[in-house]
TrEMBL record:
Residue ranges constituting the Cytochrome c domain according to the UniProt record: 168-319
Domain of life (superkingdom): Bacteria
GO molecular function, one term: heme binding
Residue numbers spanned by region Disordered: 1-21
Key words of the record: Heme, Iron, Metal-binding
InterPro entries hit by this protein: AAA_16, Cyt_c-like_dom, P-loop_NTPase
UniProt xrefs under Gene3D superfamilies: P-loop containing nucleotide triphosphate hydrolases
SUPFAM superfamilies in the cross-refs: P-loop containing nucleoside triphosphate hydrolases (SSF52540)
Species per Swiss-Prot/TrEMBL record: Labedaea rhizosphaerae
Full protein name: AAA ATPase-like protein
C-alpha cells in the first residue's frame, strides 16, 4: 500500500479522517446552540474521559459548529499552577473579533474590548515595574471600574456579562471552550462556576464547554456544591466495534482500498476501541500491507511497530515525567490490577490506595506525596475515595512489559 496515501496520522488533538461515534454529542451541542440563540436557558457542558478518547478533537469540532452558527468562540488549554486571566483574555478577544464583524456599533465593541483589557491587565502584580508589565494585544484604552477589581470571581462575572450582552446585540452567542479543565487553580474553578451560575440565571448567551479527566466533576463539586446542577456532564468513552469500523473503513474506502472484517476485529482487539490507538494501529497496518485489502495478517505484522511508537510517544513521554518514587507507585498499581484499568469495565476501577501501601510495605501517609504528585501531573486520578487509576488507557499493560 502506498504510504503517501495513508489516511491515518495520529496526533495529539488532531482530527481523525473520520470522526466516528460522536454524533450524539454533536447533535446535543447543536440543540444547545439553538436554544441559547433563542434566549432559552441551557446549562454549560463538561466532557470527561481518559486520555486518548478524543476530548480535544471533540472540543475543536464543537468550536467549529459554534463558528458556523455565527457565534464568537475561543478555546484555551488550562495548565497547572497557571492563572486563568491571560489565556482567557486571549480566547475572549478572539470571540469578540468574531462578533465585531457583525456588530453595527464599533463604539460598543470597543467598550467591551476596554473591559476585556482591564480584566487582562489585572494579571500583572501590583508592584511590577512598568517594563515588566505584560500588555495584552488589545488596541483600545482599558476601561475603569468594570472587571478590574482584582477579585477573579467578581471580575469574571462582569466580563462574561459584557461579552454576552455584545453577542446578544447581534442575535447570537459566545462559546468558551476549556481543555484540561481539571488543571485550573482552585480560585479560578470557583470563579468560573460562579460566573456560569450568574449567566444561567440571567439567560445570557454565553456557554462554557469544559473537557478534562474523569475526576473533573469532583473538582468542580469541591469548589461549588451547585456545580452538579450547573453543568451537563457527558462521559466520552471508547468507540463501539461498529463505530471503530466506521473510523477505519470510511477513510480507507476514500482511497479506493478495503480492510477485511478479520482485520477490523484484530484492530479493535489491539486498540481496545480507543480512538487514538485505532489511528495508530490502522496507520501501521496500512503501511505494512503489501497489497489491497488490509488483512488480519497485516495487522499482526504491524502491531509491534504501532506498539513501539506508542511506547515512546504516548506512554514513554508520560512515564519519563515521573520520579523514581512515582514510578514505584505506578508499577505497584499496574501489578495490583494485572495491567488493566478503568477501561476494563469489570469490577471496581483501578487499585485501592491502601492496597498499594500494603503491596509496597509502606504506610499510606508516606505514599501521599507520590500519589498527589502523580495526580497533579495528570498520570493518575481518583475517581472515588480510596481508589486510584491511570488516566491513560493501557498504561498499566505498558508498565508490566517495560524493562526497568
Amino acid at each position: 500500500m502506498d504510504p503517501v496515501r495513508n489516511p491515518f496520522a495520529p496526533g495529539a488533538g488532531q482530527r481523525p479522517p473520520e470522526l466516528a461515534g460522536r454524533d450524539k454529542e454533536l447533535d446535543a451541542f447543536d440543540v444547545v446552540l439553538e436554544r441559547v440563540a433563542r434566549g432559552r436557558p441551557e446549562r454549560s457542558l463538561v466532557l470527561t474521559g481518559l486520555r486518548g478518547v478524543g476530548k480535544t478533537v471533540l472540543l475543536g469540532e464543537l468550536r467549529s459548529m459554534a463558528v458556523r452558527r455565527g457565534w464568537g468562540a475561543g478555546k484555551i488549554e488550562a495548565r497547572p499552577d497557571a492563572e486563568l486571566r491571560r489565556p482567557l483574555s486571549a480566547a475572549l478577544h478572539r470571540a469578540i473579533r468574531d462578533l465585531a464583524v457583525r456588530h453595527r456599533a464599533p463604539d460598543r465593541v470597543e467598550q467591551v474590548l476596554g473591559v476585556l483589557k482591564a480584566f487582562a491587565l489585572r494579571s500583572n502584580p501590583d508592584n511590577a515595574k512598568l517594563r515588566d508589565r505584560w500588555q495584552p494585544g488589545i488596541d483600545v484604552p482599558a476601561a475603569q471600574g468594570r472587571a478590574d477589581s482584582g477579585d477573579i470571581e467578581i471580575d469574571l462575572v462582569e466580563l462574561f456579562t459584557e461579552v454576552a450582552e455584545l453577542a446578544q446585540d447581534v442575535g447570537t452567542g459566545v462559546a468558551l471552550l476549556i481543555d484540561e479543565m481539571q488543571d485550573l487553580t482552585a480560585d479560578d474553578v470557583s470563579a468560573l462556576c460562579a460566573a456560569c451560575h450568574e449567566l444561567s440565571q440571567s439567560g445570557a448567551p454565553l456557554v462554557v464547554v469544559g473537557a478534562g479527566l474523569p475526576h473533573l466533576p469532583a473538582v468542580l463539586s469541591a469548589s461549588k456544591s451547585y456545580s452538579e446542577r450547573l453543568f451537563r456532564y457527558v462521559r466520552i468513552d471508547r468507540l463501539s466495534r461498529e463505530d471503530a469500523a466506521t473510523a477505519v473503513q470510511v477513510p480507507v474506502s476514500r482511497e479506493d482500498a478495503k480492510v477485511t472484517d478479520e482485520a477490523m476485529a484484530a484492530l479493535f482487539e489491539h486498540s481496545g476501541g480507543y480512538p487514538y490507538f485505532i489511528q495508530a494501529y490502522a496507520k501501521a497496518a496500512w503501511d505494512a500491507a503489501p497489497t489491497d485489502p488490509i488483512t488480519a495478517e497485516d495487522v499482526a505484522v504491524a502491531a509491534p511497530e504501532a506498539e513501539a511508537e506508542l511506547a515512546v510517544g504516548f506512554f514513554g513521554s508520560r512515564y519519563e515525567r515521573a520520579t523514581p518514587a512515582e514510578r514505584e507507585y505506578l508499577r505497584a498499581m499496574a501489578e495490583l490490577t494485572d495491567g488493566s484499568a478503568a477501561e476494563s469495565g469489570e469490577g471496581q476501577a483501578g487499585a485501592g490506595t491502601a492496597d498499594v501501601a500494603v503491596y509496597l510495605g509502606r504506610k499510606p501517609s508516606s505514599l501521599s506525596p507520590a500519589r498527589d504528585s502523580l495526580i497533579k501531573k495528570g498520570l493518575v486520578y481518583s475517581g472515588e475515595r480510596g481508589r486510584i487509576d491511570f488516566t491513560v488507557p493501557h498504561f498499566g499493560r505498558f508498565l508490566l512489559t517495560k524493562d526497568e
